[in-house]
Write a structure and sequence with these properties.
The protein has 8 helices and 7 strands. The chain is an alpha/beta fold.
Amino acid sequence: MSNQVALITGAASGIGKAAALKLAARGTTVVISGRRQDLGHDAVAEISAVATSGAQVRFIRNDVTDEHAVKSMIDSIVAEFGRLDMAVNNAGISNETATLVQSDSEKYRAMLDTNVLGLYFCMKYEIAQMLTQGRGSIVNLVSIAGLNGIPWTGPYASTKHAVVGLTKSSALDHATQGLRINGVAPGATKTDIIGRQLAGGDEHYNEASISAMHPMNRLGRPEEVANAICWLLSDEASFVTGHILNVDGGFQAK
């Protein structure tokens, strides 16, 4: 995977950063994006330390809910590196645990803006660039909530169901044009964000109860999800498109 260029959104921490670390270690030039400049700079230093084969690492401060900003980000990557070979659309938010009736409409709107419209904007301009190259690989972050109904997460689950639809439909649209578009559906993964939520005292959201949902009875690790992302991006998955790969400790097998 050396001598290629990858974009990973929401990659200043968690699964996105874990994927960036793996790609850079394999010689891939990685552009990470996120909303926080400070976290981005720290992540660049960490990722650069493991980069091989002349791989470069960049951070672009970006909000995926801004279509113009997303297009400008893709344009700047192509202007500097000449191409965009891979993309991981990882930016997403989960801001509430509640039933639909109890949920806050503005919080739901924020999830729609980031998880659905943000993904739509990213895919729109990533695919447009990859079509000019005749080749490209995209991985979208779904969730077990994108394949199931999950109590207390209905609004969030609906946004991730939309990600599945965008992933599969786009994969079919471009299956003969050199593009592969897949998704990864992680179970609960112990990122910094989830770690803070677990420590928040929510009776419906604690580590024991969330772990018990998974047959392995534990949370996933970011690097475990990153392994799946990197495989789907790579030529080792050359006959895989429109697929949602479960990385969920056995959740889907129940």
